Amino acid sequence: MKTKLGLMSSAVALALAGAVAATPANAGDWFNRDAAGSIKDAPMAESGRSLEWSVNGGYMSDYVFRGFSQSDEDSSYFVGADLAYGIAYVGIWGAKVDQFFTASDFEYDIYGGIKPKLGPVEFDFGVIYYGYSNQTVNVNVDYWEFKAGASTEFDKLSLGVKYFYSPDYTFETGEAHTVEGSIGYSLPQVWVFEPSVSALIGYNDVDLAGDYTYWNAGISLAVEKLTLDFRYWDTDIDNDGLGLNGKNLADERFVFTATVALP
Q: 3-class DSSP state for residue 202?
């Protein structure tokens, strides 16, 4: 794992070095990430073919995506919007990122797809574009992903699995395969809050950067339009496996997120 992460570090470092010589990760579902860090489902149109919309924004003490801090372990803000009609949806989401790690200072993600149902199972088939503004490297940081997922609920318990495929991952590091499994449980209301606990485990495999496993677990407190999330993140990457900016951006950390969603 240490050697494979070294490849990823080298790829990013070489790209940054090339930009400096010339003169001049990954991150990020119009699109939302849920508090557990995976791509958040767009809102479904509840009455068949009615048009549904929502907007959201908030604060993150650290922007973590698939186990990696995208904001150099600093705080970040985000904003997004979703639109759904029947089983179809589109969305946009953006967040402040760190220039050193992502070769950009702002990430914008656009996505779309369909969410058909079969019995108690809801499927999710979509495509996602991860864009980065003001790129400072000579390789392409932007990339596409295709998504296939399924989820179901049993009373207060929810289960889900998602698969993501990119033909050429960020920094042109080749094909990438990502699999995530999630679980959540709604707890009884406490005062004005509606609490829930959730966890996620994921595996990411990139041609030129190797593979690793990441996970998180946390609790969310929802009240009216506000959700407060407290989450622990970690990966199986060695502490000295990533030497970017003198920090290990994939080690264990606690992240606080506050999200306001309308309507």
A: strand
* Structural tokens at position 136: 């400072």
Instruction: Please state, in angstroms and rounded to a whole number, the distance separating the CA atoms of residues 125 and 167.
Output: 16
Going from N- to C-terminal start, the domains of the chain cover 2-262
Measured CA distances, 81 to 12, 93, 166, 188 (Å): 31, 7, 24, 29
Handedness of CA 170, 171, 175, 178 (dihedral sign): negative
DSSP state of 190: B
For 2-262, CATH gives 2.40.160.40
What three-state secondary structure class fits 194?
strand
> Cβ contacts of residue 75 below 8 Å, gap of 6+?
59, 60, 61, 62
For residue 235, how many other CB atoms are within 10 A of its CB?
A: 25
Q: How far is CA 57 from the centre of its chain?
A: 15
What are the φ/ψ torsions at residue 249 (nearest 5 degrees)?
-80, 0
Residue that is written with structure tokens 């606990």 in the block = 197
DSSP bridge pairs for 159: 152, 183
Look up the pTM and report it: 0.85
Could you tell me the two tokens for 197?
Answer: 């606990």
List per-residue pLDDT tens for the chain, 263 residues long: 333 343 344 344 434 333 333 333 333 343 345 555 555 454 554 445 799 999 999 999 999 999 999 999 999 999 999 999 999 999 999 999 999 889 999 999 999 999 999 999 999 999 999 999 999 999 999 999 999 999 999 999 999 999 999 999 999 999 999 999 999 999 999 999 999 999 999 999 999 999 999 999 999 999 999 999 999 999 999 865 454 567 889 999 999 999 999 99
